[in-house]
Amino acid sequence: MDFGSLGFRPLKLVSTVYVKSKKINAIKYAKCQEANSYKGIIRHEYSSMQSSLSKELPPVNTIFVWDFDWTVVNCNSDEYVPTQFLGYDEVFKRVTAEINEHGPNFWHEIIAKIINACHNEKAASLVGVLEKSAEMPYLVDVKQALTDVYNSHNCGQAIISDGNDKFIEAFLRQTNMLDYFTHGIETNIATWDNESLFKIAYQSSKYGGHECSRCPPNLCKSQALRNILDRINTKRPRIVYVGDGHNDACPALCVMNENDVLLAREGKRKLNPNSLSGPQSDDDQNCNETANDGASDGGTFGIVPTLEKVKKKEGLAPRCRVSTWNSGKDLRSLIHSILNEEESSP
Fold first, then answer.
1. Using CB atoms within 10 A of its CB, is residue 39 exposed (0-12), middle (13-18) or buried (19+)?
2. pLDDT of residue 3
3. Does the pTM of the predicted model rise above 0.70?
């Protein structure tokens, strides 16, 4: 989840809760586990998650690391899927109430609870949930950029996402992009038990948690990126990181160096993305329209404001080159230039 904006209108309702809950650190994380009232959520380590910790990854000159929500897809997957069963207004109401009570660090518990409500109240099956996941909207030029990288020489790709593996995999299979990610998909692990109860295990549980004060307990993208780099048993590749959210700022500040490139999405989100499906053009994602529910805009992508805030408060800025994009054509052009640099390098 992008903690800077939930994709819903009333961000002010949760902003004070976020300030408090953001202070949860590694010590408090253990207490949060005990206090969790959502019985269906699994936070312990899975052997399947552990198996990837030491798996060697192929050497590449450049690795493209992608966020998923609002980057690979043009929506928030956690919001999109339950909205297809319960409707925007009902999901909005439930998410807002849960966040005001528990705080956004319990985002994945909240989403699991709402997915289970889809099953209990609307008879949503596992197959049905995955079918809706596969329908998420995406920008045509973003997919083409991913294809360009896949077809290039000596480049790899990975996803580091605050979503979950079931929604992501269903989408990538439907769009024939699952094989694009040669260096893995790092995200939270979703499962259904024998009673069709939807559960989520935190990505960070594979490492025993993390101690990053910038990130929520379930995922530190710097930690996940370092693990990917550690498993490439040659010289460190150049990193091209593509993302939009607050938590994408962490690797830009903590992992990336002068040779790397951050492609940061800026501007505003598409309005009413949960009413769309499949391929979309840049014209389709015009964010200057007026929302049906009266909202003035779809919210601002969080990564650029977060970097600006950190620089102002801490005097810290990314060492890597930073380029911004909003449309699919913007992104494809930037990636085309980077691939040309790759081909011309000795």
1. exposed
2. 34
3. yes
